[in-house]
């Protein structure tokens, strides 16, 4: 160690010793290189081979349409509005998870659509989608 007793040399050393910083960084780098392969939690498994099966059958949703003249259609078959509830009750009896799509012409009076929706609700249908056109 050298001590300076001379007061005429008052220079301040402005250098930073980076050797300890480099040592710490190298130790961290080695630690990450060693531990990185251990971070993979995947378990490699050879899965058994089986015969291909068909996917579960999707039941198509029933479509109820109301045209501009107020006529009601169930899957493209015209039906009087008074018989809509009975028709849907019969279909709900066969399939309790019946999905229904309702589409109505924009020119049809709201009262006709409201009557159709009331008949759908009374029939026990719990999955109802109201279809609209895209765009503006």
TrEMBL record:
It is found in: Cell inner membrane; Cell membrane. The chain crosses the membrane at residues 20-39. The keyword Transmembrane helix applies. GO terms for cellular component: plasma membrane. One of its GO terms (molecular function) is transmembrane transporter activity. Keywords: Cell inner membrane, Cell membrane, Membrane, Protein transport, Transmembrane, Transmembrane helix, Transport. Gene3D superfamilies: 3.30.420.270. Its main location: membrane. InterPro entries: ExbD. GO terms for biological process: protein transport. It is a single-pass type II membrane protein. PANTHER family: BIOPOLYMER TRANSPORT PROTEIN EXBD, EXBD MEMBRANE COMPONENT OF PMF-DRIVEN MACROMOLECULE IMPORT SYSTEM. Belongs to the ExbD/TolR family. Involved in the TonB-dependent energy-dependent transport of various receptor-bound substrates. The accessory proteins ExbB and ExbD seem to form a complex with TonB. This is Biopolymer transport protein ExbD. It comes from Paraburkholderia lycopersici. The lineage of its organism: Bacteria, Pseudomonadati, Pseudomonadota, Betaproteobacteria, Burkholderiales.
């Amino acid at each position: 160690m050298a001590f300076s007793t001379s007061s005429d040399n008052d220079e301040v050393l402005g250098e930073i010793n980076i050797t300890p910083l480099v040592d710490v960084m190298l130790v961290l780098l080695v630690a990450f290189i060693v531990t990185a392969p251990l971070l993979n939690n995947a378990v490699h498994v050879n899965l058994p081979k089986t015969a291909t099966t068909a996917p579960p059958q999707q039941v198509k949703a029933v479509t109820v349409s109301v045209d501009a003249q107020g006529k009601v259609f169930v899957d493209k078959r015209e039906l009087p509005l008074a018989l809509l509830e009975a028709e849907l009750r019969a279909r709900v009896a066969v399939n309790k998870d019946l999905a229904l799509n309702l589409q109505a012409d924009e020119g049809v009076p709201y009262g006709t659509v409201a009557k159709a929706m009331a008949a759908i609700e009374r029939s026990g249908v719990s999955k109802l989608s109201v279809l609209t056109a895209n765009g503006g």
